[in-house]
Structure formats: structure tokens, C-alpha cells
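Assess this today:

___
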Amino acid sequence: MDEILLDVEEKMEAGIDYLRQEFRGLRTGRASGALVEHIKVDYYGSPTDLRQLASISTPEANLILIKPFDPSGLKDIERAIQAGNIGITPSSDGKVIRLAVPPLSIERRNQIAGQVKKMAEASRVTLRNARRDGNKDVEKKQKAADLTEDEAKKAKDEIQKLTDQYEKNVTELVEAKTHEIQES
């Protein structure tokens, strides 16, 4: 029973971690290196994450500074940022790339808040799938006579408690991200 609960909890935790990563890549009014670090750059024929090719910093609240480790890759990085469709035009001085993060319009803030809700719903589906899989495992063990009826009921109750707890975490993450988007 414990291994079923542990498996369910691991799947739910992975879903929450994925949601957090997705939220880091969403644009708010503030500059964040997470906005560009996963952009794929065609570097010598292979797609490579930007964070592996350059140092990314935010010296000001509305500026992202990208300094390539190899200056010859500057143009490739610039092209990848433009193709990345993040809504920011890069400017280069030959050594570093500057991304001035403009303030978001109210309409764009609402669009991003809508994206947050869609991502959260996808995360909730992941949680429910983990719950369903856990309940199926419990039922299989019960049919195989590895668990009594009372143990199976207790395990399902524990799985539901985990689901409720993680859904609450998703709700808190959504509220915090939506607040961050609306205030910046």
C-alpha cells in the first residue's frame, strides 16, 4: 500500500514541478532569465539551449543581458531569440545582446493569465490521472487478495487526500502567478 501511495505522490509532485517550470518561462512585466534560457539555438547544426551557450543576467528590472561564451555565436543567438516569438526584439553591440522587456498591456496580461489557467488545468488533469492510476493499483491488489477491503478503502482515501493537497498547491501557484502578472 505504501509503495502505491509513494508512486502516486511522485507522479503528482512531478506534475507540480512541471507546472512551476512552465510558469517560470511565462513573461511578466519583469525581466527574468527564465524567459529565454530554454530558447533553442541552432549552434553548429544542433539545437542547443541558450543557457548552455551564454551567461544570462538581469542587471535591471526591465533588461535581460545575454553574453555568449563564444562571440561567433552571437548572430545565431539573436536569430533564435527573434524566432522564439517572445515578443521582445534583441539589440546587439557585437559582444552582448540586450533585451529590453517592455511593460505589458492590460490585454496581454489577460492573455497570459488565460495561459496560466490552461496550464493549471493540464496540471490538474495530470493529478487526476495519477489518482486514477493509484486507485486502479489498489483495486488490483485487492482482487489479488494482497489488500483487505478496509485497507483498500483507506488507501483510496489517502490517495484522495494527496489529490486534494496537490490541487490546492496548483490553485496557490495559479493565484501567485496571476497576481505577479497583474501587478507588474
